[in-house]
Amino acid sequence: MTELASSPKVTFIDQDRRRFVEQDLREQVAVAAGQAQSYTVPVLVMSEQRLRDNVRRFMAAMPRVQPHFAVKANPDSAILTIFAEEGACFEIASSAELDALTEMNVPVEHILYSNPIKSPKAVRDAAAAGIEWYSVDCSEEVAKIAAVDPTAKLYIRIEVSNEGSTWPLAGKFGASAAGVDRIIETAQRLQMNVCGVTFHVGSQCTNVNNWVEGINSAKGIFDKLRAHGYTLELLNLGGGYPLQLTGSEPTIEEIGAVISEQLESIPSTIKVVAEPGRYFVGSAGCLITQVVGLATRDNARWLYLDTGFYGGLMELAQNFPLTLVSRRTGAAESWAMAGPTCDSIDVLGTHQLPANMEVEDLIFMPNLGAYCTSCACDFNGFPAPALVMAS
Q: Which of 27, 66, 105, 247 lies deepest, with the highest CB count within 10 Å?
């Protein structure tokens, strides 16, 4: 019998949601279990059916919104192909991501360049490929793009609340009200076309009001752009759509209902898009990793895995609310968990697992289809997780 071992601090909002989360975890582990028999290295098992279902569910929840998958979440070519088949478009942040899509013959009109800060070479690469839409959040970026492609269409990334997000993004990006004025002033001086607005509510956002605030703020920027003679074409709702990790998160249907109501005041001439990343791939991937060592250090029990911070578990190290699943039964205890490298940063926090864990036991980590393999490297000679597609 597989036990679900997780932190006791999680509070579920009702029993139905708790049952859904636990059933979902079991289904993810069941899909991955077929790879356990021949285990040699860490492996991320992706479910093709779940990938397709996630896209379809998102589209059904927000019929007006065209999803552009955030490629950074998982740039595997098989995954990108599945999303293209399901009618999704794409959002990129680099020349490498652009190359991956052009090699698949994705039409450039299906690609948004939403990294607010791009190198001059990246802009040149994108312009040469025919990319039309670029995000900006400062006047300097407007000038950078103008020097390469004066025909580009720009959409302003504005600051918005990230309250309720597990991984806030505010601060690094997002124009303030004064910043928006500087962008418009620079765009007018350089005769650049500013015809859209975007925002990002933060990764794994559980606060639906952030999208409401973002849409309302965008409407204010639209008014300002109209007053300066610009024709509005795009509202980009960004990413942040959460996985169901604890049972306390709003569902995509609940988020979609709120967003759809807010969009009723947005003219039909304005195209509305979004940039789901984690939502599309997260629940479709379950990582299998192996215990390679146990240690008792004073009063602490340590458990070492064959992958860690450098092997795709960066978010686990940052207290992302993942559930770890062991095949062992018995009373749980706290384990200090670490990866295999010699670096002191390769520590993954304290987690609840059965007290009778042994070396060579396997641990399943559901909901890791996003930002696992895409963030992994082979530091210290330890291999990054392989990615395997299951039906």
A: 247
